[in-house]
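Note to self: the last two entries modelled the partners one at a time, which told us nothing about the interface. This time every component goes in together.
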Amino acid sequence: MPLLTPQTQEDGDYSLVASLDNVRHLSTILKAIHFRDHATCFATKNGIKVTVENAKCVQANAFIQAGIFQEFIVQEESVTFRINLTILLDCLSIFGSSPMPGTLTALRMCYQGYGYPLMLFLEEGGVVTVCKINTQEPEETLDFDFCSTNVINKIILQSEGLREAFSELDMTSEVLQITMSPNKPYFRLSTFGNAGSSHLDYPKDSDLMESFQCNQTQVNRYKISLLKPSTKALVLSCKVSIRTDNRGFLSLQYMIRNEDGQICFVEYYCCPDEEVSESES
Amino acid sequence: MKCLVTGGNVKVLGKAVHSLSRIGDELYLEPLEDGLSLRTVNSSRSAYACFLFAPLFFQQYQATTSGQEALRCKILMKSFLAVFRSLATVEKTVEKCCISLNGRSSRLVVQLHCKYGVRKTHNLSFQDCESLQAVFDPALCPHVLRAPARVLGEAVLPFPPALAEVTLGIGCGRRVILRSYQEEEADSTVKAMVTEMSIGEEDFQQLQAQEGVAITFCLKEFRGLLSFAESANLSLSVHFDAPGRPAIFAVKDSLLDGHFVLATLSESDLHSPAMCSPELHRLAPPLQAHSTPHLDDFASDDIDSYMIAMETTADSEGSRAVPSIPLSPGLRPPCSPGPFSEDHEAEPSTEPGTPPPKKFRSLFFGSILAPVHSPPGPSPVLAEDSEGEG
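The predicted structure of the combined assembly is written out below.
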């Protein structure tokens, strides 16, 4: 027990105990999905999955695997609770969000079970902060039923190539249209705004393209307001996998490398805005 | 119309669009035989700007498609600016930029060919329009200043970003003075600071104006052109006439020229002693010659401006523009030479007497200042009505 906290309970009394010597490994990943106030957390022995949803159309999942933590104990099969993500992030960065070089904030996170608050012990330079965040009734999360066997088109891009595109999206356009095709234009992002339309084309042999597996031309539109928050994950990531399934559902998987070189994943699912007939593309 | 811009010229074009965006909400794009013209005018028609990019600026330039009449178009500044939003990215990733105007589809197509084969295509909707042309002739302006943009850029750097207008004039010893312009308002507590920079004649490539002349114009637009001229490493010339007459700011090189025509205030507070108008010149020895007998008075009266004077001094280190906040004895920054510097001898010593510091101070803050005369001339019409004859 590295932290000087009064231990009235044994670790065995907690259904979840997780320790981390650099809290940024957790807070950075959580920021990537922070586009709504509330999140649902699922912990299993493999790690924690944090889910944020909006408008029953978009879901973001952050996976923090057990290996990221120095200590990770889950007593039950799975532990689920809902929490205010904004407050959780505020607490995690209570010693400042960009600490001085050389100083790390350590975290010990404990959860006793249903009805109990989430306890955070944060320590930096011998100073300990204890935060208790009330947990809420877990809500059922959406099942997008996105199955890799139904994936029609898949592209893996270096995030660098998409970053600028997403930060400069014409937000007067209601939708972002994604075209994926084995033929030209291969991979195209289009917006239709007040000032006119914009297309961004990526050739399949571009150096940015790590993998290009498109079997069939698909043109789908997604609400730009729903996809825009994924920019947060995009800027942190080094690679992104873009997949669409036979229903036009979109999966964006971001590979995020933390300061220690460990890899975490953030995933966004989004359902298409409407059917687009072939002729309209 | 079709033109192709490559390499560093894409950024030059982008930079020009950025500086035009400081003025108007609409961009007039007109392919001419002698180059591509980009123009704008602000909503109150008090500022007009145009750039002309010579055909040689482009890798390929075709003003008219064969058999077609030349098109002119007006597009939203915002949408054209969006194409070049991040100049850093443009510089880093864009290799080629192709602009074409297609009358049939009524779209202005801007295509950026970027690194890694990525291609961005913007189809911008446009309106047909008449030609926008301001009537101005730099040759008719009696006063001309010309200096490297860097010199003027460094001189406007210390002005607060929110400052609306700046006064440019010729002070004592033919120093060029830039001073923050204060509107005369009863509650001057917020604006109780004047920043002034003075630049020596030797920093100018041309200085054709006598002492005492001055104009007051909008800083925002001026900054726009300055930042363009600085990035292109060009000289900027200012052609001006009496207060109230438009001033013309121009940059030019072999591939492009740019003109900004800005309205100037007809009333000008340059009759203040700070600019050394003749009558006060007699009263007050010039700035540099002041000794500092009243330092304590003044500094304690207005410690804030004293602090700022020092900051300004520190900021402009390495700049050739001399910060000259020490308009009055007390504001002299401590790092400047002693009270009796060698400047002293150079100044006209025949004029006796130093004005009482209080008076100087109130003049400095404009509180007892009234414009001596404000010629109520007709407001200059800078741009002809676009609905006029074609």
